[in-house]
Design a protein that fits this description.
The chain is α/β, with parallel strands linked by helices. The chain has helices at about 35-45, 85-100, 120-130, 150-160, 180-194; strands at about 5-10, 25-30, 65-70, 70-75, 105-115, 135-140, 170. The chain has five helices and seven strands; from the N terminus they run ββαββαβαβαβα. The radius of gyration is 16 Å and the shape is globular. A hairpin with a 3-residue loop joins strand 3 and strand 4 (about 70-75). The chain has one domain (about 5-194): Rossmann fold (3-Layer(aba) Sandwich). The protein is about 30% helix and about 20% strand. The protein has a seven-stranded mixed beta sheet with strand order 1-3-4-2-5-6-7, sandwiched between helices. Bound molecules: guanosine-5'-diphosphate.
Amino acid sequence: MEIKKAEFIKSAVYANEYPKFNNFTEFSFIGRSNVGKSSLINSLTKRKNLARTSKTPGRTQLINYFLINDKIHFVDLPGYGFAKVPQAVKKNWGKIIEDYLTSDRKKIVFLLLDLRRIPSNEDMEMLKWLEHFEIEYYIIFTKSDKLSNNEKFKQLKEIKKKLVFDNEDVFFYSSLKNTGREELLKFIEEKTQN
Ligand code: GDP
C-alpha cells in the first residue's frame, strides 16, 4: 500500500466525538510516552509533522484521527507512563482509553514497545486491557535502529522473560531509517481488505 493522502480529521476525547461511524477500519497506535509513536505515524505516512513529536509529556490527552487514502483511519491514542502526571490525569486517561477500546468500531490496535526496554508494568497493564476487551492487536517494537543484530537478539531474550511472543508475529520498526515500513503497510493493506 502506498499512502497517497494523509490528513488530520479531528481530535476527540470520548466516543461521542469520534468521526461519524463509516465502517472504515481503524488502525490505532498506543504506547508509553516517548516510545516513538508520533515518529512512527509520521514515517508511515511520510509526513514530517502529521503527528506531533516530542510534545510536553502529559499535556495532550487527545485521540487524534487521521484519514488515510480516503478509506482508512489511523488513530493516535494518548500515551501513558508519565511519572509526573497527577492521579486525576491518569484516571482521565484510563477513561478515555476504556471508552475507545469498548467503542463499537472496526479497530486493530498496534501496541508500541521500545525494543531497548523491558516492558513496564503499564505496558503489561495495557496488554491485559487489550486481551480483556478482546481487541485484535499487534506488537510493534520501535527504535530498532538503536540495537545491533546481536544486541537485538539478547534484548528479545530478556523481554521474553516478561512477555511471550513469536518473532514472526511482531513488527520491528525504525522511524529513523524507515525499516519495517513496507512490511507494516502491506499488513495494513491486507487487514483493510478483510
Ligand atoms: P511519542 O512520545 O511516543 O510520540 O515519541 P516521539 O515520536 O516523539 O519520539 C520520542 C523520541 O524518540 C524522539 O526524540 C524521537 O526522535 C526518538 N525516536 C522515535 N522513533 C525513533 C526511531 O525509530 N529511531 C531513533 N533512533 N529514534 C527515534
